[in-house]
TrEMBL record:
<dbReference type="InterPro" id="IPR003112">
    <property type="entry name" value="Olfac-like_dom"/>
</dbReference>
<feature type="coiled-coil region">
    <location>
        <begin position="70"/>
        <end position="97"/>
    </location>
</feature>
<dbReference type="GO" id="GO:0005615">
    <property type="term" value="C:extracellular space"/>
</dbReference>
<feature type="signal peptide">
    <location>
        <begin position="1"/>
        <end position="21"/>
    </location>
</feature>
<feature type="disulfide bond">
    <location>
        <begin position="140"/>
        <end position="322"/>
    </location>
</feature>
<keyword id="KW-0732">Signal</keyword>
<dbReference type="Pfam" id="PF02191">
    <property type="entry name" value="OLF"/>
</dbReference>
<keyword id="KW-0964">Secreted</keyword>
<feature type="domain" description="Olfactomedin-like">
    <location>
        <begin position="139"/>
        <end position="395"/>
    </location>
</feature>
<dbReference type="InterPro" id="IPR050605">
    <property type="entry name" value="Olfactomedin-like_domain"/>
</dbReference>
<dbReference type="GO" id="GO:0007165">
    <property type="term" value="P:signal transduction"/>
</dbReference>
<keyword id="KW-0175">Coiled coil</keyword>
<protein>
    <submittedName>
        <fullName>OLFL1 protein</fullName>
    </submittedName>
</protein>
<keyword id="KW-1015">Disulfide bond</keyword>
Length: 397
């Protein structure tokens, strides 16, 4: 009986001891796991610290090497500069000797050769002008004499944009291209539809495969010509009705600086006049002066290029009319726009006698100005407003 009582007492005691031992083993395993994890993290932190020290040391060594090389380059630059200055001095001395020798030597033969070269150059220039007159319609004989009036047709869209008619098509459609980067064209049946308050609901939306850059695009003969966004100087020809790209080209020299200083988003400005399609841009090599290029709108080939005397500084826009470039200037804060540089590609206009032409009754700036040769009007976008300017013209002299 006593043995049975002891057995009943020992069983719970042994069970409790075994349970405690099991918990102690689990705690020991947990502590061992935590210890190993801390050890691993400490090793990784130590390696990270060592890597940082190695990187700092490598950077210091590289900096010392770069500074040493730069110091050597500066010394070499000074030596080269000294040699160049010495060479220039010798060239100037030799040039003075040559000039003196030429002044005391009979040089009739040299003079005759020089005169022949001048005659040849004048002949070539005359032939070039003949070719240009054949290529361009020389009967286009009017020039801008003033801007008579303006009409604000609507105020819609962003600060920058472009709107126009297609002067090469016999329809009254209006096209609106909002923003300096976008890929949606709005096409309206006529100007009355465009002027309605909910005009976008009645517009035909045309989505381009690639967005445009700037606001210098133009619509001509059913095609949109535009500077492709993200490219240096790629011009795309897009069929509006078929909604596909039909051609593209790279405009030489363009895209590195803005065409107009006051319109920094516009690297290439495309224009249309009585002669067809033109491209306007500026180049660093010309000192920022504007360059105009005649393009064949069918083949997308360059037909001729002119370096003008019109500077892009303080310019906000430009347009072509009857073979003549008119550059519009303003102030950075937006004042009265004015035309004060004119360039005729056929030299049919005495640009020095043309007075400064001011745009009427308006303070602000233009993001684009396009000439419509069929209506003899300017379609302008000014601070979100769509404006039409009527022109006064006269015969070229």
């Amino acid at each position: 009986m006593v043995i049975l009582q002891l057995r009943f007492l020992l069983v719970p005691f042994l069970t409790s001891i075994m349970g405690a031992a099991q918990y102690m083993m689990q705690d020991a395993a947990l502590m061992n796991y935590i210890d190993r994890r801390f050890l691993s993290l400490e090793k990784r932190l130590e390696k990270c610290n060592q890597d940082i020290l190695d990187y700092v040391e490598e950077f210091r060594d590289f900096s010392k090497m770069v500074l040493s090389r730069l110091a050597g380059l500066n010394n070499h630059k000074a030596e080269v500069k000294s040699e160049v200055e010495n060479l220039l001095t010798r060239i100037e001395r030799a040039q003075r000797d040559i000039d003196y020798f030429g002044s005391v030597t009979d040089s009739n033969t040299c003079t005759e050769v020089h005169e022949d070269l001048v005659k040849q150059q004048l002949f070539e220039e005359a032939e070039e002008k003949k070719k240009l007159k054949l290529m361009l319609n020389a009967s286009c004989d009017h020039m801008l004499a003033g801007i008579k009036s303006l009409k604000v047709v609507k105020k819609t869209g962003d600060k920058h944009g472009s709107w126009m008619k297609d002067p090469g098509k016999k329809h009254t459609k209006i096209y609106l291209l909002n923003g300096s980067v976008n890929n949606v064209i709005f096409e309206f049946a006529n100007i009355m539809t465009f002027m309605e308050s909910n005009h976008t609901l009645k517009a035909r939306r045309v989505t381009l495969p690639f967005p445009w850059e700037g606001t210098g695009h133009i619509i001509y003969q059913g095609f949109l010509f535009y500077h492709r966004y993200g490219s240096l100087n790629e011009i795309i020809k897009f069929n509006i009705q078929k909604r596909n790209i039909t051609d593209q080209m790279l405009l030489p020299g363009a895209g590195r600086i803005p065409a107009y200083q006051l319109s920094p988003s516009m690297k290439i400005d495309l224009a249309v006049d009585e002669q067809g399609l033109w491209a306007i841009h500026a180049e660093p090599e010309t000192g920022g002066n504007i360059v105009i290029t005649k393009l064949n709108h069918i083949t997308m080939a360059v037909e001729h290029t002119w370096d003008t005397s019109c500077n892009s500084k303080d310019a906000e826009a430009a347009f072509m009319a009857c073979n003549t470039l008119y550059v519009v200037y303003n102030i950075p804060s937006g004042g009265t726009s004015r035309i004060q540089c004119v360039y005729d590609v056929l030299d049919a206009v005495n640009t020095y006698e043309i007075p400064v032409l001011h745009f009427p009754k308006r303070q602000g700036s233009h993001s684009t100005i396009h000439y419509n040769p069929k209506e003899k009007q300017l379609f302008a976008w000014g601070d979100g407003s769509q404006i039409i300017y009527k022109l006064h013209t006269k015969q070229k002299v």
